[in-house]
Amino acid sequence: MKKIISLLLCMIFVNTTTLVFADDAVTTEHLKLPKKLEKKTPTNVVNKSDVLVSVLEYNTMQLTFAEDFTSKTAKVGDKVPFLLENGAYTNEGTEILPPSSRVIAEVSNVEKPKAFNRSGKVYIDFKYVELPDGRQIPIDAKLFSNKEYLSRGKLNAMGKGMGSTLGGMAIGTAAGCGIGVAAGAVVIGGLAIGMPVGFAVGALVGLVTPGLNYRAKAGDKVEIQLLEDLNIQK
After folding, report:
1. How would you classify residue 191: left for phi > 0, otherwise alpha for psi between -120 and 50, otherwise beta?
2. Which range of residues forms the domain containing residue 82?
3. Among residues 34, 101, 168, 188, which one has the fewest Cβ atoms lying within 10 Å of its Cβ?
4. Could you read off the pLDDT of 133-165 as tens digits, one per residue?
5. pLDDT above 50 for 90
């Protein structure tokens, strides 16, 4: 009799365990990404069960600025909202995050533009995902780029510097012409003096002029990479 009871208990335990594992069975799907981002992302694996969806570490996402942003007025502690306007889905059709979900970041440091055309930098920490129903899901992520901060590119800063240099050259050339005329030289002589002065003044202005503030408009895109799994309870 004891053997029969023990056997029945074992059968109940096995069946119960099987049901638990069946309910929590994990399937693997793949995060849907824009084509350009898909080509360079390290992984797009998503694990899904009946109770949890996990977007695995190193996955990437494309966000857009929810509002205009500039480093000129940014302060440490400011919230920076980003949008997942169309939500996040897997290639297999599972909704991970609904449309209009937001990713909230916080400014951790701001570096103002500096001389020699060094543009301003904004460091941000991604804090949480905010769902349309108000729920907040912690997120640990970084910018998916070769820089750890938001900043204008070198070409933008060089273009500004070139403008300053040309402006300085114009001023210097005019000053040089004045020197030449004051010295009794003909206009050609004035230009001969003015051009070297213009280059010298223009180069100096181009060097000492500060770089650019970072600016983004609502809708501008930014890419992020997860540093830990993003877990969404169903």
Report:
1. alpha
2. 29-152+213-233
3. 188
4. 999 999 999 999 999 999 986 444 444 444 444
5. yes
CB 204 within 8 A of CB 168: yes
CA-CA distance, 33 to 94, in Å (whole number)? 13
* Residues 116 and 207: beta-carbon distance below 8 Å: yes
Q: Is residue 7 part of a domain?
A: no
pTM: 0.70
Q: Specify which of 106-110, 113-117, 158-162, 186-190 reaches the highest per-range mean pLDDT.
A: 106-110
Residue 126 burial (CB count, 10 A)? 22
Reading the block at residue 65, the tokens are 């600025």
Indicate whether 187 and 76 sit together in one domain.
Answer: no
Question: For the residues 23-27, what does the mean pLDDT come to?
Answer: 80
* Domain membership flag for residue 101: yes
Q: Are residues 202 and 229 in the same domain?
A: no
Count of domains in the chain?
A: 2
